[in-house]
Amino acid sequence: MPTERAIAIANRVEEFVRTQIIPYETDPRRDHHGAPLDEMVYEMREKARAAGVLTPHILPDGTHLTQRETATVLIKSGLSPLGPLACNTMAPDEGNMYLIGHVANDELKERFLKPLVEGRARSAFFMTEPAALQGAGSDPSMMITTCRRDGNHWVINGKKCFITGAEGAQVGIIMAKSEEPDSAGGACMFLVDLPDPAIRIDHVPNTIDTSMPGSHADVTIENLRVPASQLLGNAGDGFKYAQVRLSPARLSHCMRWLGGCIRAQEIATDYANRRRAFGKELIEHEGVGFMLAENWIDIQQATLMIDWCASVLDTGSLGTVESSMAKVAVSEALMRIADKCVQVMGGTGVTDRTIVEQIFREVRAFRIYDGPTEVHKWSLAKKIKRKWKQDNGLV
């Protein structure tokens, strides 16, 4: 059961999103990709600040809600695609705040974490690399961006792609493979101020999703000099830190987009109860009513899966297996929900007259980012094989 603290925060977030943020869904302040402009983002955040719901998952003393409490809150923030932006619970900032808070020293927290928590800056996480270069994607061990020591600095060179929010971000976390022998070929992470002339945005492609400011940029990093003091954690431990970030971040995506699909179900349900065809309301036709019933089941199952994975993370476990399971189960369930909502609403469902069409597009992208469904299933299958070998005394 959610705690009283989480319920109280979630209720405030829900009221704020429904009354003050949903009207922004028709605001024309968008870039040519359809993503909200920073002007609108920071305007919404000021309203969230005034309402006491800015960065609601991080308490005034700097401590975090538990993952189970966070789920209660983030689901409500996701009732609009703009809700997480307004409340400062959106990717990549939410995951970056989590990582910096768990790994950075006090000096770096003051410089890089504080403006993110206060909602006065956006951030970007530079990990994914171009497939054409055989760079890191779902397999981070393929990383080709490099870093090497040069006196009191590190020098970084490489290319990154699909870097969410890079355009317009003020804080960056860059992941690069170390060329230093004492790092044993491991990765390093660095905190950097953005923009920086050594980090060039080459292209920002149009993508199916349009909820994230700055979209998903292709980037070249050329002789970027980063002071050694801005190394995040220890040299060579970057892959470990990536898991610190990615496991809860996958789950946070599930939370936010579950909220979106709950909203889509509300809209489709309202439509099916008001629209008549063949002498009765649409919901009275089994073909329509059954789709909404199946959605209701999927919503409840997704909620339980999120709660189960969150409870594992709350034990202090990295929860990589559990977060993979949740990512697969929830993203696939949300795709079914969003698809059925579009289908129930017919022609209206594929227009921008409601937010259902956008939620469908966003959830389709979610099945890919933070690890495609197939990669997570492959990883789980490897673990099944390993356990079978152990159970049968073969290792």
From TrEMBL:
Entry-linked Gene3D superfamilies: Acyl-CoA dehydrogenase/oxidase, N-terminal domain (1.10.540.10), Butyryl-CoA Dehydrogenase, subunit A, domain 2 (2.40.110.10), Butyryl-CoA Dehydrogenase, subunit A, domain 3 (1.20.140.10)
Cofactor dependency: FAD
Oxidoreductase found in the keyword field: yes
Family matches, as CDD domains: ACAD (cd00567)
Keywords associated with the record: FAD, Flavoprotein, Oxidoreductase
Domain named Acyl-CoA oxidase/dehydrogenase middle: residues: 124-205
Source superkingdom: Bacteria
One Pfam family cited in the UniProt record for this chain: Acyl-CoA_dh_1
Record domain Acyl-CoA dehydrogenase/oxidase C-terminal: where: 236-383
Family membership noted in the UniProt record: Belongs to the acyl-CoA dehydrogenase family.
Listed name of the protein: Acyl-CoA dehydrogenase
Native source species: Novosphingobium ovatum
